[in-house]
Amino acid sequence: MDGPAQAPVLVFSNSLGTTLEMWDAQAARFARTHRVLRYDTRGHGGSVVAPGSYTFDQLGGDVIALLDALGIERASFCGISMGGLTGLWLGVNAPHRLNHLVVANSAAKIGTADGWIARAALVRDKGTAAMAELAASSPSRWFTDAFVAAQPEVVRRAQGWIAAIAPEGYAACCEALAQADLRNAIGAIGTAAVPTLLIAGASDPVTTVADAQAMRAAITGAQVAQVPASHLSNLEAPAAFDAALAAFLAR
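^ thats the sequence. predicted structure below, dont judge the formating
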């Protein structure tokens, strides 16, 4: 946690294969106005690696349990990719705990069940060797080619996160993504009048601008902000990402 103890709380939730350190720049920026809470999603970083498939009931429930343990009644929530899907789950299942919901580079359904299940099986079979292979291939999914060439240190740091993730934790989160489909549920977020911002990377091949627009169509009152980046937009375009987030939180 960073920032003044009495400031409104802003929670950041990481993407698959990263850790809470992916939000370092945002924590420094928003700790001036908010009490910033970052956490490692179950199976990632310093969090517990429980065996077996995870679900978004667990991943979203972890956030509620964390807020309860810290005595936080309401918070604004910003999640990216897998973290964004966690945010959608919270908007559907616990809207009364949210002041603002920011869903970045995400979708109500990400990828295909078969694809996630195959990746989980590969990681369980090959262990740390599979994580090293995913780290080697991650730049093409996470960043534009121009950014990879211009910011190799940022890219290498991100590759280090995924290489160090426990294979079981990564696989179990893949299985959560395989099961997750909130396309028919997210209309409840608009019904509950949770202020919602959908941040999309203009060059994101994983969760596209079209995915953000589909969510906007389903969530009454939601806004879309497009930033010049690929999938990890907070790392590739921090100025644009932070500006969109700050303007929204000021509502």
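The CA atoms of residues 66 and 175 lie 22 Å apart.
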